Amino acid sequence: MTNSELLQYCMNKPGAQQTVHSDWKATQIKVADVLYAMVHDVEQRPAVSLKASPELADLLRAQHQDVFPSAHLNKAHWSTVYLDGAIPDSQIYYLVDASYQQALSLLPQQTRQQLSD
């Protein structure tokens, strides 16, 4: 998977907005100003940082060498996943969906309702 393929998937989510964090050379994807994905290169490899529960983050890191704590974000909740590693695309898409759902859960009910209309 490439960064652009993942960006396209992320931007198809309702309410998705894209900004660039120039200091980190990363594209941030947010829903209503809540970050749910950060697409960037790590060690010249395509990667995405995604939010997960601390338990899931620990499990993923233990099972996959292509998953590790994010450098710029809260390491308990945010993991970086290499897009060109051994993790299947379908699992990466699942993790994006889970991160998006966590971001939605932080939004007020009215905002969530507007996004689902």
TrEMBL record:
- Domain of life assignment: Bacteria
Q: Does the entry feature the keyword DNA-binding, yes or no? A: yes
Keywords per UniProt: DNA-binding
SUPFAM superfamilies attached to this UniProt entry: YjbR-like (SSF142906)
**Spans through the membrane:** none
Q: Care to name a GO molecular-function term for this sequence?
A: DNA binding
Recorded hits in PANTHER family, A to Z, give:
CYTOPLASMIC PROTEIN (PTHR35145:SF3), CYTOPLASMIC PROTEIN-RELATED (PTHR35145)
Report what the protein is called: MmcQ/YjbR family DNA-binding protein
| Organism of origin | Buttiauxella warmboldiae
